[in-house]
Structures are given as C-alpha cells and as structure tokens.
C-alpha cells in the first residue's frame, strides 16, 4: 500500500550513449528515492519495490509511451501474435537469455512464472481469464484464454508479468521467506547485491545480461539511498552525494532549473489524485449532495498550491494518455453557484453538516491541498475536519465498517498495466461485496454493466470499448461517487551530463538504470 503515497519517473526504453562512468567520473550511479521494499518476492510484489524489481526482472513485452508508433516492444519475447478472437496468444522467446542463477530462459520458466502470478500474485487479476498455458517447444509459449483478452497488456504490466527462474519459484514455494533474504532470480541487467531495510539498496550489473551489448553505457553499480524526506533528498543532491533524486520538495524544483549543475526532467505520468465520498452515509448517499461538493472544490488552486503546478486537471479517474482517457469528458472545475443550487435542491440550502476527511500524513501533496478542500467547502456551509493518518492506518479504517469509516478518503493511484479501463474504472468504482479499492462503497448496476461490456470488447473492438467506457465515465461525473483532482506531472532532477532519461507513463514509478549513461551536457 506504500505504492499509493510515492512516485518516480519512468524511462521509455532509449539506450544510454555514455561510457558507463557516472557524472562524477566513476562507474557508480548514486540515487535517492522514497521507494521502500515491502517484499523482494517478484510474484507477490504490489508496491514501491517495483523501483528495483524493474531492473532485476523482465516481462515478455514492454509497453511503449503513449503516441508511439507501436504499443509494445520486445522484452523476453521477440515476436508475438494473436488469434482473431483474441483468445489464443503465441509468444516466441528471445534466445541466449539466462537467469541470474545461470539457468536458461525457457517456455517452461515463463509458464511457471505466470501461473505463480495467477495463483498468488499481487496483480493476479490480470490473468483472471487465463485458461491454460502450452509450451510446444522450449522457445514458444501459447496462452489459451477463456475470453477475448489483451494478453499483451498483461504481459507488459508493472507487477503481473516478471519472469522468474524456476529454481527460485520452487525454493519460495518451500520457504516463503526465501526472497526476503535479499535473493533474486531474474534475467534483468542488475542483481541485488546489498539491502539494508529502510536505508539502502545496492544493485550490481549482471555480467551475463543478454542486452549488455545494446546498452554499453550502463552503470556497473547502482547505489540507492532510501530517503522518505524530500528535503533530505534535496540536500543529498545539492551536496553531490547522489546523481538523481526522484522526490524533491516541489516548491524548490525551480532552484534546480537555474543551477548549471543539474537538469530537470518533468515526466507525464499515469498517477492521479482523487477522493472517495462515503456513499453509505447521509447526506453523501444523495448524488446531488456529492455533485455539489465536487463542484465546490478549487481545482486550479489545488494544482497551483498543492502540486506547485505539477499537475493537469483530471477528466475522471483515467489519467491523461492512458486508455480509455477521453478529452470529451469535462475537466474538473469549480462552480460555487451551481454547488449552492444543488445543495439547496437536496434540502441543504446552507450546508449545515460536518464531514471528516482523511489523507495520508506521509504524502506531502495531500498535506498541502487537503486544507484547500476544507476551506472551499466552508464557503457552501459544509464543515470539514481533517485527519492525517499513515496510509496503512487510513486504509485499515476504510476497509472496516463503512458506517463508521471516513466521509472523504484521499488517494494517489495509478494503473497496474497500460489499460485504466480494466484497472482504474473497474477497481476504483465497480460494485463488489468486499471492495478492494472502491472506498466510496458506491453501487451502480448500470456502471457495472458498461465497464464489464467494455472489458469484454477491448481486445476485439477497441473503439466500441472506448464508447462504453466514455458512458461509464460520464456516469461517474453525474453520480459523483468521488472527486477527481488532478493527474500528476513528476519532476526528476539529475546531475548535468546524465543521459538516457526518458519518461514513460506506463511505468510511472520506474527508472531503468541500464539505459542511463553520461555524455555531453
């Protein structure tokens, strides 16, 4: 759950052109990040350790940035094809690839890895339609699905598609703590060399990496300092202790833009801030009240003050650039007159009620913009009490009895794969007896039908799916089970001369270290 309160910037796959020595003239890359490790198990992982795992493990495919000529590019698979009904997908594996334990990449290894994710993975839902996997030879994997499925999306996901050495999977089955001893079993450019919980991760280049010749600028050692405090990251960067800082005080980013020692990259991301209304409690069980509250919020001010300008107005819970984002969905905007009119129509002409809003105390942006929500709702007569809690504590409260839970729950969220329809729209607002992330507790048979039909159509009729998703998103605006605040833009500051840093919203939390190098400033 720590993944909901921190973020970084992705690299789209460009190859670093440097010599392999860092900005300070060494072969060591020093990095500061907020990314904590909740588990080293690549199958169970569903949190911020993906920052490291994406450099240790690889999927069959990588998703390209929005707007690229091709949606996907080869990872451990060099080619792939699908049947007309999108129920059968065949992947041809890359030859000459070895795991860090020296064993070869085979179809059997792919099969075991994906079945492990389906069985116990943090992102097991990505493989819910998987019927069986066939391995006609050592380099061919065939996925048989029970329904039309975009297997390429699942096979390129941030959490649900890492390919793991069979011996490690077997060891982890016998001992669930096997990975937690700092072991790894990937095919990626780095292996885990050292780990001090909450403080440091050291990655070392894997000498047998299949892509080494394509990425000659890779650093041999990556020394990552885990620093939850943004001010501490700034001090480390300015003093030369690190070459990259992924999370700085947003109000101080401008300092680096005018400092010749640094370069600032602002990444579009698939992260977005939103909030849930507790629709089980009065008066929030009335859509008119919820719509009024949503219209009362100062979205421009929230972006300017809370995000220091590093955001764009949200158009529902699907972030910009990610399917099924739609420019026709109206952007969130303030309209106090309409808010007052709706409240009066709902029987609350002067507001007159109190709501409790919870936010993640360790999230600086939420801490900044939560008071703006309180002040705005006071203008329509609604009192808001703010409660900053550690995310896990907030999460536990929200997962309890909705009748005793918060009235408004703030959240930072991003999709697991390059499809926010089957993730954001389904995960955040679809009805469920035991909702995982639908912390509005909202139920709508119409919305469920639209989303379910769209998911079923996506693999064979993407335009048709888009139309259904757009109807679902309009329903979210009209019914307002939540507030859609802004899509995040992430500044990443690096030492001048570091090359190969590019942004890919599909991997918003990741840096791909082997693609970085040094070159002319």
TrEMBL record:
GO terms for molecular function: peptide transmembrane transporter activity. GO terms for biological process: peptide transport. CDD domains: PBP2_NikA_DppA_OppA_like_7. One of its GO terms (cellular component) is periplasmic space. It holds the Pfam family SBP_bac_5. Residues 72-420 form the Solute-binding protein family domain. This is Peptide/nickel transport system substrate-binding protein. It comes from Conexibacter arvalis.
